[in-house]
Inverse folding.
């Protein structure tokens, strides 16, 4: 597998450059989770880092690589806010109120 030396910014890994395995597209994963064992033998603490663009070239504005920034909110903010992908054909559930939007007219509207 191919790997790339990727810098980490913020959190306990600040300033370190670690080799990160690349995916099929040649990019590192969007989130990088580092389990840190607890000193008392309890459940490990998970540090979460998010992939961001490292920089852009001055002349053409091209992508120059990736870096990972520390996500202080941890696992809660690691995923998407809706809990999954947002497809163009999916619609949010709007609360329905009364007969608003009905195709049948109200039979007592004339009275």
């Amino acid at each position: 597998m191919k790997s790339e030396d990727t810098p980490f910014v913020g959190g306990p890994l600040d300033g370190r450059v670690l080799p990160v395995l690349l995916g099929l597209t040649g990019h590192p994963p969007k989130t990088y989770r580092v389990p840190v064992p607890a000193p008392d033998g309890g459940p490990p603490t998970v540090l979460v880092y998010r992939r961001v663009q490292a920089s852009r070239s001055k002349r053409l504005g091209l992508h120059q690589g990736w870096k990972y920034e520390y996500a202080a909110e941890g696992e809660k903010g690691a995923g998407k806010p809706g809990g999954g992908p947002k497809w163009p054909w999916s619609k949010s559930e709007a609360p329905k109120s009364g007969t608003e939007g009905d195709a049948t007219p109200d039979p007592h509207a004339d009275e």
